[in-house]
Amino acid sequence: MTQEQKLTVGLAFTGSFCTFAKIKEVTAQLAKQNMRIVPIYSFHVQNMDTRFGTAEEFRKDIETITGEKGLCTIQEAEPIGPTGYLDALIIAPCTGNTMAKLCAGITDSPVLMAAKAHLRNEKPLILSISTNDALGMNFKNIGMLMNMKHIYFVPFGQDHYKKKTNSMIAHTDLIHETLEAALQGRQLQPVILGPQPVE
């Protein structure tokens, strides 16, 4: 892709709120590249205030970074399919709940509708997982998604193997590199990395 051509990338947020500070940093890094970033918010991200910040504050920060108004409804996300305007879609963070629904073909949020609509166009869907049950109830879903066409994973590892033995989280510093590989039809390897540093 030449300098004149500008990628349009969807960046969808689901409710692993503890990762939001890192995800904002990644959003800022991506925004410095030659791409337009379209934010997409799950209903939880739009409405839930947590100890990590308010929903309104997060959305304002993301829209300031990207310069784009986010997609907040299923109706707003659906045209991604027929118009095909995204070159890639990244779900970051991608919760266990989102992975389970993706596997079941459920589209009950803007993020899930965006994923379904985008996959219709056979373009890359990139998952940056963050889930406490990756090695438990969601283990089978990760395996299923790994084997689906056009779905790629940001390399991930256990985030706190002493206190949360089933928990895994993406190495978010590899999101851009994963995106570049996925646009070439490649899964960035190795996809399973060592654990995140334990504090």
Report on this structure:
With 199 residues, this protein is an alpha/beta fold. Helices cover 37% and strands 19% of the residues. The chain has helices at residues 20-31, 43-47, 55-66, 74-77, 80-83, 96-104, 110-119, 139-146, 175-183, and strands at residues 7-13, 35-41, 88-94, 125-131, 151-153, 156-158, 168-170. Strands 1, 2, 3, 4, 5, 6 and 7 form a 7-stranded mixed sheet that branches. The longest helix has 12 residues, at 20-31. The model has no long low-confidence stretch (mean pLDDT 93).
Spell out the key features of this protein.
7-stranded mixed sheet, 199 residues, 9 helices, alpha/beta, single chain, globular, 37% helix, 19% strand
Short description:
By secondary structure, this protein is of the alpha/beta class.
